[in-house]
């Protein structure tokens, strides 16, 4: 099964030598799941020729807002809607979570509580799952037909399911503690309040449910679905 990765942002250049880009991060997260991968840098205007160029699509995180005026956002939303229509499964992470919701009729805006960074625990129907988060924007209104799968103290719609068409997660199962530490150093200082950055640093030693989330993503891609 071929998974197309739509890269909607770039990590800080200081981190790419050790961690690669966001396409590399998801290849690592979903390694040993039997998938093949191809990436497209949609943030640079590079799109697949067709939603049929892969068997499933994964939309990455980004420092951009889904509601911002960028030339590549409208065609990405069109791509999302076509994939839903043709029953090509999608997974969205952080920005991907937000842009899928927006494209399908939901609403994304800056969280009134500010930034959410570092180790977070989410309630997946009574099961606590821990992941690292790094966001200020959130989905605040669900699209028609969508269902909230998980919520957290600072994120009401932390994971969303769209029938068998899309699965999206606000947090970052592809981020390990070292990557978050790098974001704090190279993207957080002077942007995220110092107290929050220190709390995030202090929590880096706590475990995550990244592998469990990776397995759920892989199972979602592989499930049989109606056309």
Automatic annotation (TrEMBL):
GO terms for cellular component: cytosol. PANTHER family: GLUTAMINE AMIDOTRANSFERASE YLR126C-RELATED (PTHR42695:SF5). Residues 76-176 form the Glutamine amidotransferase domain. It holds the Pfam family GATase. Gene3D superfamilies: 3.40.50.880. This is GMP synthase (Glutamine-hydrolysing). Signal peptide: none annotated. SUPFAM superfamilies: Class I glutamine amidotransferase-like. It comes from the Bacteria. PROSITE patterns: GATASE_TYPE_1.
């Amino acid at each position: 099964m071929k998974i197309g990765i739509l890269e909607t942002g770039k990590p800080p250049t200081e981190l790419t030598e050790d961690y690669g880009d966001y396409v590399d991060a998801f290849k690592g997260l979903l390694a040993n799941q039997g998938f093949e991968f191809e990436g497209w840098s949609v943030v640079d205007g590079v799109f697949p020729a067709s939603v049929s160029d892969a068997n499933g699509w994964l939309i990455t995180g980004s420092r951009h807002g889904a509601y911002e005026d960028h030339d590549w956002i409208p065609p990405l939303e069109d791509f999302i809607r076509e994939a839903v229509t043709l029953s090509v499964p999608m997974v969205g992470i952080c920005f991907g979570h937000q842009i899928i919701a927006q494209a399908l009729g939901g609403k994304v805006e800056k969280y009134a509580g500010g930034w959410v960074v570092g180790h977070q625990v989410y309630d997946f129907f009574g099961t606590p799952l821990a992941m690292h988060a790094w966001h200020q924007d959130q989905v605040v209104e669900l699209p028609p037909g969508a269902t909230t799968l998980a919520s957290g103290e600072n994120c009401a719609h932390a994971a969303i399911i769209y029938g068998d068409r899309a699965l999206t997660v606000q947090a970052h199962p592809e981020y390990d503690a070292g990557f978050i530490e790098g974001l704090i150093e190279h993207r957080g200082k002077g942007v995220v309040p110092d107290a929050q950055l220190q709390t995030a640093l202090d929590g880096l030693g706590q475990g995550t449910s990244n592998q469990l989330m990776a397995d759920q993503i892989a199972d979602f891609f592989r499930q049989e679905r109606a056309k």
